[in-house]
Amino acid sequence: MEDMEGGDLSSLSMRCKRLPEMVIKAYTTSILKGLQYLHGNGIIHCDIKAKNVVLGFLGEVKLANFSAAKRISNDLLDIHDRTLGWMAPEISKGREQGMPSDIWSLSCTVVEMTTGKVPYLSPEKLKLTGILDCNLDFLGKCFMREPSERWMASQLHRHPFFASAHLNKYFHQVLYSTIYRLLNEKSGLIP
Question: Where in this chain does the record put each Protein kinase domain (predicted)?
Fold first, then answer.
């Protein structure tokens, strides 16, 4: 297994209390790319959360902990133990666990990056302050109660939430320096 010296996204989110918006966009973009790859290959991660996203010092982002992952089949997927705060409503009702459940968990991860807190509350009860309307719309596409209405990873990747990430040619340079600074400040390597 590859060593990712930046730790996990949950630790960083909780230490920072709230990640900068451009960092949230970058990490979400990377997670979506990972989900697109997995879903395109018929795999559901089944446990997307910030704790299962590992970071490198140069901005690398990787999904981790595939112990709950399932290959998509025509049969109902087994319901297994998952972290309740990130669990899609259809799973708690014993319905099929599919690609939309990964999308629900992704949105919970975005909430965690935005608030620095574990998303124990239902989306209706979440009070998300400091989030632009565009970002709320993005979360709304992910938090659809009916799985068939949730956007797929490929659709979400084109959402206006990511517009500045795709258009700004300096985005990645600024992003990586910000991520490097955050990781080093929070680890105590930079005074």
Answer: 1-162
